[in-house]
Queue: 3 jobs
Job 1
Amino acid sequence: MLSLFLDAAATLGESPRWSEADHCLYWVDIDAKRVHRSRIGADAMICTDDTYMAFDQQVGCIALCRSGGLLIALEDGLRHLPAWGAATVPFGDAILADKPHQRFNDGCVDPQGRLWVGAVTSDKASPDASLYRVDADGRITEMLTGLTTSNGAGFSPDGSLFYHTDTPTHAIRKFAFDGRTGTIHSPAVLHQFPFGHGRPDGCAVDEAGYIWSALFDGGRVVRISPAGDLVQTVELPTARPTMIALGGPDRKTAYVTTAAKGLDPIARAEQPNAGGLFTFRVDVPGMKQGLFAL
């Protein structure tokens, strides 16, 4: 059964990450320039405490680090947060510093501990954003070009496939992934969503290799099989889910971030919990959260 985990009133909630070490959910409010840490109750479906750290730039996504703390993707570059409440340290090159019409967006960590993070263009139309691979030594490599809204990054349980979506295309694509070299090739469409019924945003992959995708302006999250078939739909009481994470002690609790941004006054009144985090139980546990090799 779907329930409200936290009435966060986020403008643009995103990037939920379950931390087994901290036993809590980290997530961001992009437009509010905040990273949140939400602690859970005994059943993992109720938030018992939520705190946040504020930054001077929009926060696109976060990654948990092996040494503890977070790697944070901001508008123009990355910063390492060694511990909650500590000062951040710049990490890698500020590769978007000369691209003010872009900011970092969605990302995930591969099985080898590298961060894959994409950018979004401010007009959501100009195809000059890219997807980047960030290595543990701070090197940043451009992996895909010609994007507008890089989203939905994830890896298959066996590490042989990389999933990605450029949201306006309404398609989830899959790539062959070489973990040794950190390269992708052989792109193919896994699932094409119809236009006008929601756009694929952030995703999570479960242990069976199924992909959960949040459909922005579609009011639902869906589960896609490794063959590309839509096998399950969970409706939400708000139109703009943004991303899903599978966590909790058994990794069988889904956490869905949502957005209130852009809703007109009528829609906002009809969706009083827009910007909240929602939760429901799943049958197949999610993959263990990838940790950046830092």
Job 2
Amino acid sequence: MSSIIKIAVDAMGGDNSPKKIIDAIIYHHKFNKNVFYKIFGDQNTIQTLIQNKVNKENFEIINTINKVSSEDSPLGGAKKGKDTSMWLAIESVKEKDCDIVISAGNTGALLVISKLNLKMIENIDKPALSALWPNKKGMSVVLDLGANIECSSKNLFDFSIMGASLYKSLYPTETPKVALLNIGSEELKGNETIKETYKILNNKKTDDYDFLGYIEGNELMNGTVNVIVSDGFTGNIALKTAEGTANFITSELKNALSGNFIGKISSLLNISNLKKFKKRLDPRLYNGAIFIGLDSPVVKSHGGTDYIGFSNSLDVCCRIIKGNLIEKIKKNI
């Protein structure tokens, strides 16, 4: 695709910014010459970091030293004014200057400022926070991960449509397989909202995705389903549990293989397999949550990731725009 993708970048959010953000843009630019980065932040610092490392025609810096900090409450971040790097980046998408916005800053503030600036897609009541998770066969889209604590069956149905559309945008050759996260796989299990959503999805005839019923927490990674739908309360707990488990496994494995002479010998013999395993669980590969339901896509990078992780989020931005996510949701809704 030769047309230019324009990404609005909040350069001041997250740990070690703006250096991390600019390092990520420099790295991403090496492999993506058809991307224009509109960068919002402290011009003097950014100019020094980016100088001669990204083609001049591929970026523009919008100067602002005001920023939303990680300590701000969601509303406090929004009240900091319309000259923060986060607000200006989102506004540039609202004004159609850019195709998509990305920030590693305060998640709550990003959601509030996005909702203040951007309209909802028609017939969708709530935006959802979605992300990519690894499974045995590839990747899954999981939503909602914390934007909405309480959800109606209409909300969960909308999340199913949006999640399937997102999956199709990112993986155009694959069929989205949708399931509802529940406490059992039997039709009678779960609360009334889940059961009602099951009925709606089961009765809807569509070629856009396959509905496979319920999925339990212990089956999230087995790959039979690639779009997992839940309310934000349950989804956030599932996300944090999965992240904690992955960190526990990698650190315990490291300890076991570096603890004694036998461990060190066996780790040398298995070094390539261990590297593959570690790479599979590397959270930087799955960095980039997406607020969907708004009429422009908003991507949230993990605040603590490094420049490789942020660069992967920039990749997600490109794939969302190439895959026409918003048009897909509008058509499917």
Job 3
Amino acid sequence: MQNTINIVLQAEQLEGTEATVSNWLVQPGEQVVKDSPIVELETDKVAIEVTAIASGTLTKILAGIGDKVVAGDILAMMHNCSDGSANEQPEGLNTETGIAIETEPSTVTATANSGLYAVSNDRSKRHLLGPAVKKLLSAHNINALDITATGSDGRISKRDVQLHIGNLAKSAAAVPKISTSTNSQSTFVPHTPMRTSIASNMVNSLLKTSPHVTSVFEMDMSAIIAHRAERKIGYLDAQVKLTFTAYFLAASAIAIKAVPEINSQFHPDGLEIFSQINIGVGTALADSGLVVPVVSGVQDKSLFQIAADLTEQTERARTRKLTAEDMRGGTFTISNYGVSGSLLATPIIINQPQVAILGVGKMQKRVVVESIDNLDSMLIKPMCYVSLSIDHRALDAHQTNKFLSAFVNQIENWGKL
């Protein structure tokens, strides 16, 4: 016996945000296994895999690639087999179109997970897809039912898929394209949902929400370089990376205690100041965009605990395993743009609804003049610029400079205070 299931998007997966359908991993007529990924979604922060809660056969896709979806939306429909037989062809399914004759559906919520999926049976052996064929179909979002199979016993070969892709490219090339560029030697790269959301958020923060003002200080890194050199091997033995960013988080928490208004949110009728310090760290995903994983409760953590949390969150970001929960609840943000070689960047756009963001530039040895025994001396020191961009509705120069003074003092005198 078979039941029709609506695959419904969970609210907790989105954390109140909107998502865009980026890729269907299974097409109508194909089988799915319980807990296997069905569709990939993108929000402005993370990629989400929606998985099946039961085994069966996908019958209809209701949210196409590029469609916006919110919690409660039905993404697709499937038949499941109550006897556990995942290979049974659902009654009423047209294998040419992938459209099912529907019965009364039950509603089952999809979950986020990982796994594999199988392909539905057929009279021929076209459903027996090799790994290379599956990868090509998924990468180019092609329905296996659209492929002309020439392999043995009606199987779809890698060459069949490549030929189909080539034919699609020829068809696309035959359609005239209008370009606003005078240079014909160009490549058009469509925006990903993440890039589109980042663009919208940046414009809204800078031009529509917060009047940005930036203050810049100079900072001597000698003290934390020496401290890190003594401890980084021990940290690595514990599988924790002791980065300069960990020091920046710890110093930020200390500076925020001196200027609590930095750790706040602006409301029309007042300033909400948070007692818990949750610091987000801007992390680039190569050319794919930027995410901000959060280290929570920094005010109560040692440098080792901060470094351990930061190591875990950074690794999750770079392996695309961050969840919406990992980036929720930030009250302050650090952009360590110096890791990519920038000496100074301004303004660093505030991560709404926060009121300030710290920027740290590239460390560079520079000649610094200092007074020693009442004589000016030129010294070579590892220096960098540190900036704070603020929401001028909530903060003024007084709080900005007091915070930066406390931050720089902590870094320059690490282990001495």
